[in-house]
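Work Package 3 (structural annotation) set out to generate three-dimensional models for the target panel prioritized at the project kickoff. During this period the team completed the workflow that converts sequence records into discrete structure tokens, so that structures can be stored uniformly alongside our sequence database. As a representative example, we reproduce one entry of 212 residues exactly as it appears in the project archive.
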Amino acid sequence: MTAARGRTGRPPLTEERKAEIRLEIARAAVDLFVRQGVTATTGEQIGQAVGVSARTVWRYFPSKENCVRPLFSAGIDLIAECLRDWRPGQPLVAALERAFSTEQERVTGTEGATLGALVRLTRTEPGLRAVWLQTYDEAEPAFAHALADRAGLPADDLRPAIQAAMLNAALRAAVEHHAWRTADADTDRHTTQTELADAVRSAVAMAAEGVT
């Protein structure tokens, strides 16, 4: 009787490690896009910056523009969670404060130094613009479901859908307005990120006038 043959090769990656790799690829891609442009950047270069093959890059993302999606979509789940926990009578800005604080901490580091430049690239790079807008398209139903859960309404009810659309538009407008307005600003990173957080809070407060 022979012993069962053990499994050989590398153990499968955990979901947590896969998420880390996706984020590493995203950071490398945005750095290259900002420094040399999207057209001049290849999958091979993105992979080399991370220490993986181009095949690995394409395993995680269908195109080089899609590589930045994790940076665009970060925070969506947390915002949806905050919306579900939004207490009656509590200002919307206060309900989302945990998400704002977490996001500000995330972009205060090296990642934040190029995130504004990446958003500005969406104005001139159609591929990046498509990914940017698609990210918000995907966020909107997540926000709508969270608002419907909070109000005890059906997921397909029109009211939370309208509320989610208003909130989503406010978030995108604030980020774009800040990124384009500060393109040539000579301010330190912490000040820039504080201003971004304040812009997002102001935009949400404006939208909240119709989201009650």
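The mean pLDDT is 85.
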